[in-house]
Amino acid sequence: MRRTRVLVVWGAAALAVAAAGPAGATGVPEADLAYHGSAMLTGDRVDIWFTPRNHGPSAVPGASVQLSWSVPLADRLELPAGCARTGERELVCGTGPLAADGIGEQIRLGVTLRDRPTEVSVELDTVWSGGTVDHNRANDRERLLVLATGDPYSF
Question: Is the distance from CB of 65 to CB of 125 less than 8 angstroms?
């Protein structure tokens, strides 16, 4: 009887782990987040649009990406749902759920800067990955230099 209970407990634990999806050696689900998009600087406005992607192997219930600017943002900003200002030069946006090997919804921002710089750099970085671990942080950190040419710069 005792042996049967142990097998049932271990069997239930194995099913729970399998249902959670692929996990690394730590037992934490793994994901590989990346961001690809473009940005354009015209006058005091930066338009930036990017798409989050999860290369897997596990799904991500939601992640947060921080955008850090090299110059101060205007005091008043109109941000889309899911984005919030967190500092003089920082914003955070939620990605929504990301399926394993899936593409998320495009995030589009139009941000006004305090001044009219000739260039601005924008850094994107995952600050929360929904309880997953990302062993390849190289592709979820982007740094982009955008010149005031009105041309889109891709990342």
Answer: yes
pLDDT of 25-63, one tens digit each? 568 999 999 999 999 999 999 999 999 999 999 999 999
- Burial bucket for residue 152 (CB in 10 Å: 0-12, 13-18, 19+): middle
pLDDT in tens, 77-92: 999 999 999 999 999 9
Sheet holding 141-147, edge to edge: 83-85, 90-94, 64-69, 119-128, 141-147
Q: What gap in Å lies between CA 52 and CA 107, rounded to an integer? A: 8
Does residue 103 contact residue 95 with C-beta atoms inside 8 Å?
A: no
* Angle subtended at Cα 139 by Cα 118 and Cα 39, rounded to the nearest 5 degrees: 25
Whether the full predicted model's pTM is greater than 0.90, yes or no, is no
Contact present, 147 and 42 (Cβ < 8 Å): no
